[in-house]
Write a structure and sequence with these properties.
3 helices; Thrombin, subunit H; alpha+beta; six-stranded antiparallel beta barrel; 2 domains; 29% helix
Length: 159
Amino acid sequence: MTDTEETQSTAPVRRSAKRRRIVKGAWLVLGDGETTIYCVVRDISATGARVKLSEMMQIDGHLRLTLSDGETLDAEVVRHVGEEVGIRFTNGERPSLAPPPGPMEELLRNVMELEIEEVLERLDSLGLTKDEAIAHTAETLHKAHSDLVAMLGNKVGPW
């Protein structure tokens, strides 16, 4: 049974990514894979998940979350209170159950897909960066692109 409503709350929002409420069986695979713990994923986003353990136990560090459909995501524990564990995905891949990207995430993806490095290399290969004004503008473009990606990334969070 899967409930795919997006969570709404009056509490202050500290997360950068929309979360989807779900109820899905999964396993936390610890260390080198010798230890697996059954859990239920309660909500998931592009950047992490909240899981409930079947019993209280201490978990920390890096692990893998394997969903009942076989999808596996590298993660790290960021919060652990009682039987509830908050994890952050570390592999940079978007989970298939995460809510669709919002407008900010789409914008960040578009900005990241701009081929700024290729443009700068092409300017250099054509000898255009010998012109001081072009070289300065190219450097400014490179820095502005990097800064924009970083700023948008801080607003959206990794996926």
